[in-house]
TrEMBL record:
UniProt signal peptide: 1-18
InterPro entries, per database record: GPI_transamidase, Peptidase_C13
Record's protein name: GPI-anchor transamidase
Organism: Enterobius vermicularis
Pathway: Glycolipid biosynthesis; glycosylphosphatidylinositol-anchor biosynthesis
Record-level GO cellular component terms: GPI-anchor transamidase complex
Catalytic site positions: 158, 200 (nucleophile)
Origin superkingdom: Eukaryota
């Protein structure tokens, strides 16, 4: 009797294991296979002056989210046009908050800013994307992506139809951005690229892009304003924009780890007009995959895709003649 019960238990266990394995395989089959091996993020706040506090909070919020999901500081280029923590009008020096409850200081000691103040210019942004930087530029200020990199580009600030203002002094046009991305494409500097623009009429920032494997999304369509979300009366300014607030809410609540099964389609739907008060723009015609089959963490996280092969790889005589370079 005991032997029969043990055998029955073993059969149930094997069946449960097989069913779980089948579910895992079906989940894998649902998602598009990803060919990237590393992730990079270029996060840019283009605004200065105290009343644009929320734009700094926007970019720092996204910075913390992508770090939590596995993208290391070495693979993040963070550009802040103004130093809000040290602004003399900041009643709480050394801090930046994205909530009126002030529960999390976004500007802790672990934040690594790569471009600060007047270093944040249209020229430097384009140079970062294209890799055309001065030879003496330190590694921390370089986007060292390659043909197997998924790159996230996030822009927040003030904009209009076809432009984004930098420092309230110059403009990045949608043609500038499109040409910089085409240079990246021709130079094999990305595998897939996601452009996120959070500004008024921000849809216009990606509608001139013509390079392959690019996804675009924005906080507003052409002709629409992008609105702020929350005000902290003790600080005296708005502290985050609506689109970024709901992006952060989605990432924090729905994408708990880099293995999350949430998709880019889920992300695009995370801020409907009733929440954002503007219409989220999405462009997918340059992207060959179905966003509903692409994981959010393909862009917002960092995963290493390992492929196991069993076949023997043979090198021909030409490979055997290659000698290591000596310095």
């Amino acid at each position: 009797m005991f032997r029969y019960g043990a055998l029955r238990f073993l059969l149930v266990l094997i069946g449960a294991f097989a069913a779980r394995k089948d579910v895992i395989e079906r989940v894998k089959e649902h998602f598009e296979s990803s060919s990237h091996t590393n992730n990079w993020a270029v996060l840019v706040c283009t605004s200065r002056f105290w009343f644009n506090y929320r734009h700094v909070a926007n970019v720092l919020s996204l910075y913390h989210s992508v770090k939590r999901l596995g993208i290391p500081d070495s693979n993040i280029i963070l550009m802040l046009a103004d130093d809000m923590p040290c602004n003399p009008r900041n009643p709480k020096p050394g801090t930046v908050f994205n909530s009126k409850y002030e529960d999390i200081n976004l500007y802790g000691s672990e934040v690594e800013v790569d471009y600060r103040g007047y270093e944040v210019s249209v020229e430097n942004f384009v140079r970062v994307l294209t890799g055309r930087v001065h030879p003496a530029t330190p590694r921390s200020k370089r986007l060292l992506s390659d043909h197997q990199s998924n790159v996230l580009v996030y822009l927040t600030g003030h904009g209009g139809d076809g432009f984004l203002k930098f420092q309230d002094a110059e403009e990045l046009t949608n043609v500038d951005l499109a040409d910089a991305i085409e240079t990246m494409f021709q130079s094999n500097r990305y595998n897939e690229l996601l452009v996120i623009a959070d500004s008024c009429q921000s849809e216009s920032m990606y509608n001139k892009i013509y390079s392959q494997n690019v996804l675009g999304t924005s906080s507003s369509l052409i002709g629409e304003d992008s609105l702020s979300y929350d005000v902290d009366h003790s600080i005296g300014v708005y502290i985050i924009d609506r689109y970024t607030h709901f992006t952060l809410e989605f990432l924090e609540n729905e994408v708990q780890a880099s293995g999350s099964n949430r998709t880019m389609a889920d992300y695009f739907d995370s801020c409907p007009k009733i929440k954002c008060m503007s219409t989220v723009g999405v462009r997918t015609d340059l992207y060959p995959k179905d966003p509903s089959r692409v994981r959010v963490t393909d862009f917002f996280g960092s995963t290493r895709n390992v492929r196991v092969i069993n076949e023997v790889i043979e090198f021909d005589d030409e490979w055997l003649k290659v000698e290591p370079k000596r310095y």
